[in-house]
Amino acid sequence: MNSAGPLSHRRRWSQGVVQQVSPAEVTDLGPGYLEPGLLPVDLLAKAYREALSEFGSAALAYGDDQGALPFRAAAARRAGCTEAQVLVTAGTSHALYLIATMFASKEDVVLVERYAYDLGRKILTDRGLRTRAVAMDADGMDPEALHDAIVAERGRVAFVYLNPTFHNPTGIVVPEARRRALLEVAARHGVLVVEDDAYADLTLDGVVPPSMAELAGYEGVIRLRTFSKTIAPGLRLGFLIADPRTVKRLVHHGLFASGGSANHVTSLAVATLLESGDYDRHLAWLRAQLKARRDALVGNLTGPFEFDVPAGGYFLWLRFAEEARVPAEVTVAAGARFGDGPGSAVRLAYSLNSPDRLAAAGRALAGSWIPSLERT
Amino acid sequence: MNSAGPLSHRRRWSQGVVQQVSPAEVTDLGPGYLEPGLLPVDLLAKAYREALSEFGSAALAYGDDQGALPFRAAAARRAGCTEAQVLVTAGTSHALYLIATMFASKEDVVLVERYAYDLGRKILTDRGLRTRAVAMDADGMDPEALHDAIVAERGRVAFVYLNPTFHNPTGIVVPEARRRALLEVAARHGVLVVEDDAYADLTLDGVVPPSMAELAGYEGVIRLRTFSKTIAPGLRLGFLIADPRTVKRLVHHGLFASGGSANHVTSLAVATLLESGDYDRHLAWLRAQLKARRDALVGNLTGPFEFDVPAGGYFLWLRFAEEARVPAEVTVAAGARFGDGPGSAVRLAYSLNSPDRLAAAGRALAGSWIPSLERT
């Protein structure tokens, strides 16, 4: 099932419909996309049908500004918070833009991990904010470096933007102790934490620590969740969780007073999936699919580089001592897109291709780095 | 068909699902909502089904940043522009927020009509902009007053926000000559015009002039369109039309680079309605429904007030010499919500109730203004 690559789903998977299309002959390990065959078309057809049948015209009206209660209730139950703490967003990009425009002033600083989601950073800088990279190690952002950065930018820090679980691009999971240490530093300085938690449902091995927001009792942390990585990005559906006061501050903005819920009918469609158990069944299936893909890539990847096997999410981070050349039949995301660091690195997404293609890509990558490369 | 009031559709039309619910015993002429029975539930169920069937996984992927081409092509054909000039938005509120955050700086001024959409103004002021009301008469904003306001606010004007067709709240249509005069003033000063064109498809009598954007050849004007008033607000789907350079400036923002199309799957669902002719058939039906509602209200509305019969849209503007008392069984929108002016006024929406209820509301209103009121 679903072992074919994007090519077999290409009928309307074309330029001008979807965001980006790679040439047919290239195995694209670049973007953080799901393989077309992993996008649950039938499940969504059913979800929209059921939402429109169950809610009728109420699914088509201006939705409750904060998001329809049936959706918020289901989201809150899963997150261990109250409905008052949930705000429906049109995905994480939308949520980050809202926070960057409503809770930050032009020329404020956002502290980010040394390697951080490039397009998330672009949302911040295009809004006129400055980002400052903070040193990280294999356990995530360094708390002392965070302290030093806050002190150095005294009064100008709008928030810290972190992605502690199955980090994009490095795939790491920040351990609980490190999460607590980072929270302690942020709280001590009264600096808001924005936790991008897009991948946390995609555990492939083991368990993950509680989110930073949960560890903080949802005080001083805004947690961003999305269905883009676990159902489908074309839905443009996510939600944020924060303390009720912060949610109120956002939802009282004219944007919500005027338009109502950020994505009403789609939130009701997804609410039917959350309530019926369909979402959990889909997630179990998707995890198995991603695990097969990760293992196919990892099992064929040997060469003059280092990597840690990611325990979840979409990404594997390959590190070299020097600049590397990638074989022409494979596309990867250059590490420099995400930030500067010692040596060289590339991000490989194992989400967009079949296990067979990933295995072949792994072999092609293993055999074709430039010979002068040395291990880091 | 659809002659029942909101009460008969109330099963899930309840607090926490939809934005606002009036008590059962009140005929609510306040909000610019469609009556639940006018929201095309079956049509949307079909549209989502067809979009998912036709586009498959491509409907669920990150959509083209500017919006899927099949949608943009259909929208452009109707507007007489090119696909490069169309950007998909999550409704007019979203579009206005984008323009207010991307094309204006905090403390800039937005010039608005003396009476203007209150929640649109709130989007601007909550974003930290200042609004300045410009005098209007029965033909819309006064061009000389616009000139004077631009001069008075020299260098601080981000844009002029206008709603020239079936104006919210007054229902007027700005004649073509006045549109040209306003455009001439804005162009002379190099000031951007944002044309909120939410109601233009809802002509009940006669024809409307070309949009200001069309008259300007889409130069210097951003036109905001939405399906919230003609299909359903819960879709959160609209689009803006501008010159290709302005569209590029918007679409190159990290927000779109990261999330892709602002509302991908729903734009493809609506594209099927635009292409099949279903949208036009629905529009013809909706116009007839609204016309019956407007006529039922107007035919029963006599009293110590003045009004012009609106030729389209949702709203009728009732003017008095003094403050008026409204009967308890009817809710209206106080004119002061939309701006200050001489005398007193209220906005009546004839979109949310059946003709029978509107006729009864008209009679109730006609009989119960305070006796001391005099005609203006």
TrEMBL record, chains A, B:
<dbReference type="InterPro" id="IPR004839">
    <property type="entry name" value="Aminotransferase_I/II_large"/>
</dbReference>
<dbReference type="InterPro" id="IPR051446">
    <property type="entry name" value="HTH_trans_reg/aminotransferase"/>
</dbReference>
<protein>
    <submittedName>
        <fullName>Enduracididine biosynthesis enzyme MppQ</fullName>
    </submittedName>
</protein>
<dbReference type="InterPro" id="IPR015424">
    <property type="entry name" value="PyrdxlP-dep_Trfase"/>
</dbReference>
<dbReference type="Pfam" id="PF00155">
    <property type="entry name" value="Aminotran_1_2"/>
</dbReference>
<dbReference type="GO" id="GO:0030170">
    <property type="term" value="F:pyridoxal phosphate binding"/>
</dbReference>
<dbReference type="InterPro" id="IPR015421">
    <property type="entry name" value="PyrdxlP-dep_Trfase_major"/>
</dbReference>
<feature type="domain" description="Aminotransferase class I/classII large">
    <location>
        <begin position="45"/>
        <end position="323"/>
    </location>
</feature>
